[in-house]
Design goal:
The protein has 381 residues and is of the alpha+beta class. It is 26% helix and 29% strand. Strand 2, helix 7 (119-128) and strand 3 (135-139) form a beta-alpha-beta unit. The two termini are 28 Å apart.
């Protein structure tokens, strides 16, 4: 899933570093935030969330992501034996593309549940592809709809930035517990979270920039360096593409979710430890977090990965900047614990808390959030 973000003063930075367009800026989050420390009513949160999916550009971004869309097409096709002749529930159907994939795989009936007005376009797409005899588009929140039967398969593209931003997985779990037959199939069936230290060379150039102003223009602006560091290396989760050469270690998996067993309560505190050994001498500027989901297969699972080592997706990666860069050498150990939990201000927004040690040096604990208008307080558990 794609969640539009407010980007504010970081637009120039995004264009400079990544050459992104105005549309792509929706998915790049970094330098600014509007800290409104108030809790949104659940109905308001849901209205804002579903309304964001009524615009074409969000669906264009997702469908155009060939890594994402082909992974679902192939994941469903590889499970055709479990889909053929069965009832399927598509949670958060959007334009209905996954429902059409299921019908093409032989599903007897597909219930395509979508809360936003894009459901109207989904119904047209279903008719255009001549599967309207098997795919029924239902406009409404999953938690409110009634189905005439239990289903054999649930399919959903529920993943947000850093996997859990948007909290759509909660609706998938409600669907599973209410409508999936015992022994039924979840597509995807498993999710994993990974982390690795990174060295952001562009960030280092930006921090050095203020020391070069005097030579360029005859005005000493070196005092801006600390201010720049505080602005850039803040508590925001930066959703950006990370270059392979910036990754300083093998990835460490710190959490795994079994979609057949995980509970809504589990999602309130997803946590795990990590341990990485650096490849060589560099400066660690932050931690990079990404996810992978997998579809079961006869020989081996089909994996949709958002790793910086794989082709880029619209999810990019989530970067957590340290307070300041830390120099490391070959085999310097970076280890700690990561906790992910919903923001107190809006349950659909994810917060990430990190306790980290680099080379035996204890780093300050830090809590991060995606800056879409609501701040995240430190979470204690």
């Amino acid at each position: 899933m794609f969640m539009p973000q407010s980007v504010g003063c970081m637009e120039v930075w995004a264009v400079w570093k990544h050459g992104v367009t105005g549309q792509e800026l929706r998915g790049v989050v970094g330098m600014s935030r509007c800290a409104k420390k108030r809790k949104l009513d659940k109905s308001v949160q849901d209205h804002l969330y579903f309304d964001s999916y009524s615009d074409v550009s969000i669906h264009e971004e997702m469908i155009a992501d060939s890594v994402r869309t082909n992974a679902y097409r192939l994941g469903i096709a590889r499970n055709a034996a479990a889909v053929r002749g069965k009832a399927v529930l598509d949670v958060g159907a959007g334009t209905g593309v996954l429902s059409v994939f299921c019908a093409q795989a032989g599903a007897r009936k597909v219930y395509a549940v979508e809360a936003s007005s894009i459901a109207e376009q989904a119904a047209e797409i279903v008719r255009l592809n001549a599967v309207d005899d098997r795919v029924e588009v239902i406009r409404g929140r999953l938690e409110d709809v009634e189905l005439p039967e239990r289903v054999d398969v649930i399919v959903s593209e529920w993943m947000g930035y850093a996997l859990l931003h948007e909290s759509m997985l909660n609706s998938v779990l409600v669907a599973r517990d209410r409508w999936l037959r015992p022994g039924g199939l979840m597509l995807p069936s498993r999710a994993e979270l990974f982390v690795a230290p990174i060295s952001d060379l562009v960030l280092e150039e930006r921090l050095r920039f203020w020391g070069s102003v005097k030579e360029r223009y005859g005005v000493d602006m070196s005092c801006m360096a600390d201010f720049a560091r505080r602005c850039i290396m803040n508590r925001d989760i930066a959703v950006v593409p990370v270059a392979v050469e910036d990754v300083l270690s093998h990835p460490a998996r710190f959490a795994e979710l079994d979609l057949g067993a995980v509970t809504e309560e589990d999602l309130q505190n997803v946590r795990g430890t990590f341990c990485c050994d650096c490849f060589g001498s560099a400066s660690v500027s932050g931690l990079c977090v990404w996810f992978a989901v997998s579809f079961p297969g006869e020989d081996k699972p089909l994996v949709l990965s958002t790793s910086p080592f794989k082709p880029e997706t619209h999810w990019k990666q989530a970067v957590l900047y340290l307070d300041e860069p830390v120099d490391v050498v070959q085999d310097t150990r970076v280890e700690g614990e990561i906790r992910m939990f919903p923001s107190e201000e809006s349950s659909r927004h994810i917060c990430i808390h990190v306790d980290c040690t680099i080379g035996g040096l204890k780093m300050k604990s830090k809590t991060y959030s995606i800056p879409d208008g609501y701040s995240c307080e430190t979470h204690v558990s």
